[in-house]
Amino acid sequence: MNLIFIRHGDPDYSIDSLTEKGWREAELLSMRTTKWDVKEFYCSPLGRAKDTASLTLKKLGREAVIYDWLKEFRFPVTDPTTGIKKVPWDFMPRFFTNEPMLYNKDEWFLASVMQEGSIKAEFEAVKNGIDGILLEHGYRRNGGYYLAEQPNCDTLVFFCHLGVQFVILSHLLGIAAPLLWQGCFVAPTSVTILTSEERMEGEAYFRCKTIGDTSHLYAAGEPVSNSGFFQEVFPRS
């Protein structure tokens, strides 16, 4: 089974849609996605994800299943460095590198900074959401891996967001979400692929083959957007 996660195109957050560049990215993406044999499409309810998906879906005459838990993981907490309420990631290195609990794959949401919001409950919603889809397609969660009750080669495509994508990957790969949030980046319309690897009959683990691939943009000469990537405040001399 292939799980393909696609971040929305270059965003215009003020209208929850795409910039002119984002629409170009979505068109180039659709030239790639329409070549895939996709069993099911899933999408965030937010406009920028739905708009990105729309070009692919229109060309294929398909619809996506909308799930609320695929929306961006934006449940605010107070940043201990700045005192500003914000998304529960993008903390300053001096803070997160000295918080051992944020490195714990099983209990990162119990860190003191995560107690202000509904982080644990929202993480559970995402976990239950992805596990529910996998169960529908023949894979049942069993501790840290999956029982391949009906093993298959289905391809499932998810149009969503950077933050929630890393929450899903944290669950599938057994990596604390803050480590992915702080240490990884996926550009707008980038493609991340996980494939089930079944080395013993009836047992499966999802292995990351590609993360943040933007070859469809490079091939067309379209610059890759850095939306969501923090530039250095102090330029090097």
Offer a quick outline of the entry:
By secondary structure, the chain is α/β, with parallel strands linked by helices. The protein is built from 7 helices and 12 strands. Helix 1 crosses helix 2 (47-60) and helix 4 crosses helix 5.
Give the topology.
Layout: E1 2-7, E2 11-12, E3 17-18, H1 20-33, E4 40-43, H2 47-60, E5 65-66, E6 77-78, E7 85-86, H3 93-96, H4 119-136, E8 139-142, E9 145-148, E10 155-160, H5 162-173, H6 177-183, E11 191-200, E12 203-213, H7 215-220
Parallel strand pairs: 1-10, 4-5, 4-10
Antiparallel strand pairs: 1-11, 2-3, 6-7, 8-9, 9-12, 11-12
Helix pairs in contact: 1-2, 4-5
Mean pLDDT: 96
Poorly predicted regions are none
User: What structural class do the secondary elements suggest?
Assistant: alpha/beta
Q: Level of helix content? A: 25-40%
- Which series of helices and strands comes N to C? EEEHEHEEEHHEEEHHEEH
Shape: globular
* Strand order, largest beta sheet: 5-4-10-1-11-12-9-8
Radius of gyration: 18 Å
Largest beta-sheet details: 8 strands, mixed
How much beta, percentage-wise? 15-25%
